[in-house]
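so my prof wants the structure for this chain in the tokens format not the other one, which i didnt know existed until like an hour ago. anyway here's the sequence
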Amino acid sequence: MLASSLAFAERNEGDAALVQQKRSLAGRQSEVLEQRSERALRFGKVAALERAQRRLSRRRGRFGSESSKELEHDHPMFTIDVLTLFPEVFAPFVGLSIVGRAVEAGLVEVRYHHLLDALHGSERADDIPFGGGAGMVMRIEPVARVLDEILSQAPPGERRAILVPSPSGDRFTQARARELTQLDRLVLVCGHYEGIDDRLGRLYPIEEVSLGDFVLTGGELPALCVMDATVRLLEGAIHPDSARDDSFSAGLLDHPSFTRPASFRGVDVPEVLLSGNHAKIAEWRREQSRARTIARRKDLLEPRESAE
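here's what i got, hopefully its the right format
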């Protein structure tokens, strides 16, 4: 509405004061948005660092300096690099999720690379497609500059993967997320508009991944999903039993879960779960897991049955 009001006022010579007022308002709004974005980006990393430092100080005071040495990791930290036009999308989620807890614990480091910072002079991040057509295509130069910098600073022999969310990619799975945890670095390149110049795949060993047969506005949401699915499987991110019993981890969907109250609006929790008989509970859960998979995702059983 602000843009349309401004255009209307400019067409009327007598409204010069109104035009100036609206331009000033637009400038202030832009400045506020930039400040909010900067605060959001700082929040996730700074808040996490402060909480981690406070925890470390308390532990040192309680257990002495020798215990603090036990907190140091013998293996390199898992690093995630995110290339995006919208880094502000990530900060709130990372700061308030299991990913944020993993950052605090020193299990993972998340780095954001704003592609607009890689532009030179009057360059644009996107341009019209060769051959014509609707939409805009992300230019390869800023993406390549950031990737070159990341790869040039990586240690020799680093195990890494460069993932690009794309509707034409392979379906991202729990098994692939588990494989990614064995790497040292995960690079997520977020496309936008009509995608990224296809020469990216000819110049870099990228892996296109898809969440399903649907299209999103950009690669930020799929990148968040890949990040979350991978980080939660890192050792120490969540309780080992939780990861072991996840859907897809054993080739089956997870069993049904219940909690208090035992009865709600005439629907009762299965009696076996209230029995205290852990052997029967485990058996019931296995049966329910298989029955749910047969009813909802029979395709998951086909590889198991063919192997048997």
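also thought this was worth mentioning. The longest strand covers residues 160-171.
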